[in-house]
Amino acid sequence: MKRSEGWITNSIKIAGSSSIVFVMLIFIFLMREGLPALNEIDISTLFAKRWYPIEDMFGILPLISGSLIVTIFSMIIALPFGVGTAIYIGEIAPQSVNEILKPLVEILAGIPSVVLGFIGILVLSPAMRMGLNLPTGLTALTGAVLLALIAIPTIVSLTEDAFYAVPGSYREAAYALGATQWQVIWRVVLPAARSGILNAVMLGIGRSLGETMAVMMVTGNAPTIFTGIESFIAPVRTMTATIASEMGEVATGSAHYRVLFFIGIILFLFSLVINITSSSLSMRPKRGKDQVVS
Amino acid sequence: MEGKAPGIFFVICLLCLSACQQAESGEAGENNAALSQTYIENKGSDTLVNLALAWAEEYQKQYPQIQISVTGGGSGTGFAALINGTIDIANASREIKQEEIETSLASGFEPVEHIVANDAIAVIVNPNNPVDELTLQQVSDIYKGKITNWQEVGGEDRPIVKLSRETNSGTHVYFLETVVRLNNKEDKSIFSADTLLLPSSEGIISEVKDNPNALGYDGLGYVTEEVKMVALAPQEGDAYILPSASSVINGTYPISRHLYMYTRGEAEGIQKEYLDWILSANAQDIVTELGFVPVITE
């Protein structure tokens, strides 16, 4: 009996540490394949403003700019909708409505991104072009709307968890002081759940930044660089879409291959920063609440 | 989207193969033992993949003892697989490059070229666009970003939205060399950065179909009736020619190309029989059916 329990403990330990091993292996592999790009290609070529790999133009700035434009814009859209939905589910809606609403949000999370991309091409992109009178509907804006749809379920469920973690006594105390429901939500619950909401946004950003299929289908993939507010309604090319569409035919070990892995390293670093920020936020939720009370 | 296509074709091939195997086991007794090889592995160009698949199906119907597997992935992928020895025939929408010939020779064989069909690149616009004809110089200037409004080429006052295939497509490279650079080897100009790079032929057709600002190009086999083909003139003052089987064969349409199959050394045995059959009238009818242009054989 005891021996079999030891076996269980050990296998759980192996399972637990395997993810660390995998992340390390992926990191080493990315570094080994991608870092030689810095040797083989001039830094000035690598950080130039034009991406056209078949003529050895490996400027990755437009790709970074494209990913950031789409991600930031998608957060601008997703944040109010996500937090709004969470407020409604967590604070306002009666139990019966929640029983319908929560599964629906989960279904939204389950829609494959390629299906959203398909809807984006056939419905959203023509609607954007005609509604906003744009030259084409395949733009950063269309991509951002799809990414917002993908990120909203993440934001909703994490924000709702943060609301749930706010002690009921806070709300009761506020109501006892004569606050209205809106005042309680805006002045008490939201500030108390602030770090949880930030955490939700961070994970939403991670989700948007890493999304590939939907953005590849609707952003037009033109490697244009950020020039101002009009870049939000222009076609862009993201880092993920570039890797996905070019990795298939690139010769192993060529300069182009190295640069694609280098882009992979940059994406990895972005998500590392996002994860560190989000975990450092969630490490100190207590302090946030104390500040509200004080 | 295109990334999915080879996988789907692979599944279709597997289905074909399993069907063939059943047929084969039925007549196993008469199976020609003299044929040492009964399996052909065929891979490469995405332009050619539908055609190669149609040929393989028809050939296997006629010769059930032969199994042919067809996959896409792009011309470059096909050559790489031919050099690695994982396939028998590589499909290509461009000629083999010098460095690919050298790697082939280094791995012990000479790649042999077979022209199996012709393809024209059609320049397409939305049916509501009044522009019917363009010179190659105008198309080149549009894609280089020198012309940005339809008004400058006789159309309405609308911005031009330029559509192209991704850079790993053989069609993209061909269009770059033949149209954007007008066959001038010294010319190093490229597509302007705001050219939309769409991952599939279908993506280009669907955007052109919906968007009156769009200008795109695609293989003649992919063009549907929902978009309008533009007549092209090689030079200012020349006649404007629409792409069609006859204008490609008589050489008046300026942007047409051959489609190839490459073998490891001279084709032998069933590979030779298959390639000979591809040039037969029966197989070349399939070429016409799929919207490509047949090879004329004397």
Uncertain regions spanning at least 5 consecutive residues of chain A: none
Taken in chain order, the helices and strands of chain A follow as HHHEEHHHHHHHHHHH
**Rg of Cα set of chain B:** 21 Å
Shape of chain B: globular
Largest interface, C-beta closer than 8 angstroms, per-chain residues: A-B, 33 and 33 residues
Oligomer: heterodimer
Q: Rounded to an integer, what's the Rg of chain A over CA atoms?
A: 23 Å
Helix percentage range of chain A: over 70%
Strand content of chain A: under 5%
Helix content of chain B: 25-40%
Number of strands of chain A: 2
**Main beta sheet of chain A, described?**
2 strands, antiparallel
Question: Largest beta sheet of chain B, briefly?
Answer: 9 strands, mixed
Q: What overall form of chain A do the CA principal axes indicate?
A: globular
Largest sheet strand order of chain A? 1-2
Tally of helical segments of chain B: 10
Question: In a few lines, what is going on in this structure?
Answer:
The complex is a heterodimer of chains A (294) and B (298). With 294 residues, chain A is mainly alpha-helical. Chain A contains 14 helices and two strands, in the order H-H-H-E-E-H-H-H-H-H-H-H-H-H-H-H.
Note down, in words, how this protein is organized.
The complex is a heterodimer of chains A (294) and B (298). Chain A is built from 14 helices and two strands. Chain A has helices at 2-34, 36-40, 43-46, 61-92, 95-110, 113-132, 140-165, 168-176, 181-192, 194-210, 213-218, 239-246, 255-283, 285-293; strands at 51-52, 57-58. In chain A, strand 1 and strand 2 form a beta hairpin. Chain A is globular. Chain A starts with a helix and ends with a helix. By secondary structure, chain B is of the alpha/beta class. The longest helix of chain B is centred in the first third of the chain and has 23 residues, at 4-26. Residues 1-6 and 13-35 of chain B have low confidence and may be disordered. In chain B, strands 1, 2, 3, 4, 6, 7, 8, 9 and 11 form a nine-stranded mixed β-sheet that branches. In chain B, strands 5-10 form a two-stranded parallel ribbon. The interface between A and B is medium-sized, with 33 and 33 residues.
